[in-house]
Structure to design on (145 residues):
């Protein structure tokens, strides 16, 4: 089982279904033929994440997530920094609830740790399919048969 820790920086704490989230993350990692390690999820403000994006990635723009990969062999470990401000805005623009968008972004970060990329259109399609699949496992979407 993965060890997932949650922290809040420059944002109010949000309610999480920690058991559902941890179970789905564990399933995701096992389903992708990896092993669970330590994962830290830091929920933060846009400005906090912008500073991280500038300092470590030399990117001067807002984003919903920055993932730091500490994977060794097939043990999935890393830090996920997630902007709550971006999640709220994205959920509104996409017409989904906050929790669904939040879980999508968390799964997106974990999928990156599992080795999935999203630079090309084909990679983006596969990433979205996997996000949707794991959202279904977490109870947000009906799974396709």
């Amino acid at each position: 089982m993965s060890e997932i820790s949650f922290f809040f920086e420059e944002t109010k704490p949000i309610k999480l279904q920690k058991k559902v989230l941890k179970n789905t993350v564990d399933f995701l990692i096992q389903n992708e033929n990896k092993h669970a390690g330590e994962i830290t999820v830091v929920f933060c403000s846009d400005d906090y994440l912008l500073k991280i994006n500038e300092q470590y990635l030399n990117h001067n723009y807002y984003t919903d997530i920055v993932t730091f990969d500490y994977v060794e062999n097939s043990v999935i470990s890393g830090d996920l920094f997630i902007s709550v401000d971006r999640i709220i805005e994205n959920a509104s623009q996409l017409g989904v609830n906050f929790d669904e968008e939040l879980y999508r972004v968390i799964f997106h970060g974990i999928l990156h740790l599992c080795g999935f990329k999203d630079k090309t259109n084909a990679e983006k399609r596969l990433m979205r399919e996997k996000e949707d699949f794991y959202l279904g496992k977490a109870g947000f979407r009906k799974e396709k048969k």
